[in-house]
Design goal:
By secondary structure, the protein is of the alpha+beta class. The chain is built from three helices and eight strands. The strands form two sheets. A five-stranded antiparallel β-sheet has the order 1-2-3-6-7. Strand 6 and strand 7 form a beta hairpin. The structure holds ligand UDB and zinc ion. Ligand UDB binds next to strand 1 and helix 3.
């Protein structure tokens, strides 16, 4: 199981590399990586286990964040109300954003990252809605439309596969300035 000590931190060159495409059928090693990427999110979102293992509760984790430069990331956006089903849950492989809204969306609280220990304040403008293509662990292709929070999480994870970190998007002169028409939500 991945623990905080296994997560690469800002400054590690793997976080600035472009990750390699994953080939199908998945190798046993890649399948195991996919399993462990999702396991981290599931375990970390269980308050008891999160505390027990000293984790930060995560909604997404990309392979470069565990030192593997491959185009793979897990995403687990919890349900809005208890007992509901997750807004998005999958391991996305070779993801591509095939279309995006002109409208931006940003989190009121800004973003953080499991690989960045400091708090870096500021809005991170992203596309409010995206169409995402990806392959799952079983080799099935998916094309999904996402909006608001799930879209933000997927863009954050896909950035990791391109060597981009959230603070790269923060306006240097005025961190809390967002492009006109940006949808803000928490
Ligand atoms: C996170 N977690 O996982 F709705 F259980 C952030 C951290 C950096 C604060 C740990 C987060 O937003 N927590 C959260 C939200 C919920 C339910 C829940 C936990 N990431 C993922 C990351 O760094 N991936 O590379 C940062 C997010 C900022 C916006 C999108 C992803
Ligand atoms: Zn991150």
């Amino acid at each position: 199981m991945f623990l905080m000590k296994d997560i690469t931190r800002d400054g590690n060159p793997v976080l600035r590399k472009r990750a390699a495409k994953v080939e199908f059928p998945l190798s046993d090693e890649d399948r195991e990586l996919a399993r462990q990427l999702m396991e981290y999110l599931e375990v970390s979102q269980d308050p008891e286990l999160c505390k027990k293992y000293g984790l930060r509760a995560g909604v997404g984790l990309a392979a470069p964040q565990v030192g593997v430069s491959k185009q793979m990331a897990s995403v687990l956006v919890p349900p809005e109300e208890e007992g509901g089903k997750p807004l998005f849950k999958d391991v996305i492989i070779n993801p591509v954003i095939v279309s995006e809204s002109v409208q931006y969306g940003a989190l009121t609280e800004g973003e953080g990252c499991l690989s960045v220990d400091e708090d870096i304040p500021g809005y991170v403008p992203r596309h409010d809605r995206i169409t995402l293509k990806y392959t799952d662990v079983d080799g099935n292709d998916h094309k999904v439309r996402l909006k608001h929070y799930p879209a933000i999480v997927c863009q954050h994870e896909i950035d990791h596969l391109k060597g981009v970190l959230f603070y790269d998007h923060i306006n240097k002169d005025d961190p809390f300035e967002a492009p006109e028409g940006t949808v803000m939500f928490s």
